[in-house]
Amino acid sequence: MRLGQHSQTILSRGLLTALAILFSVAAQAAMCERAYTIRVTKNFPPYYMTDESGTHSGLEVQFARMVMKAAGCEFRLVIRPWRRALLQLEMGDLDILGVASRTPEREVYSHFSTPYRREVVGLAVRRMDLNREIKSLEDLARMNLSAVYLRGAYHGPNFANFEKTEAHDKAFRPVTTVFDSVIALQKERIDAILTDMIAMSIYFDDQGLDDVLAVHDYVEYENNVHFMLSRKSVSDGEVHMINAAIQQVLANPENPFARWLPK
């Protein structure tokens, strides 16, 4: 009789485990009945690139594909300017946006995934200007230098305060894409670009500009980045599912951000 009870216990546990797995798979399948829309930008190497046929590539695209595959979800990549992407995310017309810093303002309308890499924001300058002693953004105004930055992007809490100052108005102006400003930097029409230092450094190298342009030692901001997921179109359960998929990819040796893991 004791053996029978033991066998029943094992059988019951086995059935419970099987049912848990079944329900988990069913729940994941149900959450992935629709394809997610994921924002990409046309040209922000090494993270985003688009060839003449419209095919998207780059480290962020590769990572997003790996996450969606791990989650078992279909997705569609859509090109959106940064500012428009934020508005569409808020309205629920866009599901996922990558390379995002976490802020209280954005948390009102967006979930944030677990962090998946680091970003470093600093100044791109002409190589001959690398020896300029820049300890703060105010120094650019003091030196009568001009700089640009990506409109709508987050450059850290210090920059948010700096935007309210006269020094900002004197030295800085926003642009819709920083890479279009590289020629202006090269031709000395501007003196600096406040931007992602990793991306810009690789861009200079790929374009054969690293002999004349470089990133300055000054670092404005260093932070973890996340996926933003629209609160209007992505449920809490879906966020948990995508976070689990991110953790799987972070542990994968083929993770394209293995050198820049979050801290």
UniProtKB/TrEMBL annotation:
Keywords on record: Signal
Taxonomy, superkingdom: Bacteria
Solute-binding protein family 3/N-terminal domain mapped to chain residues: 35-263
UniProt-listed SMART domains: PBPb (SM00062)
Acetylation in keyword set: no
Signal peptide positions on this chain: 1-29
Name of this protein: ABC-type amino acid transport substrate-binding protein
Record lineage: Bacteria, Pseudomonadati, Pseudomonadota, Alphaproteobacteria, Rhodospirillales
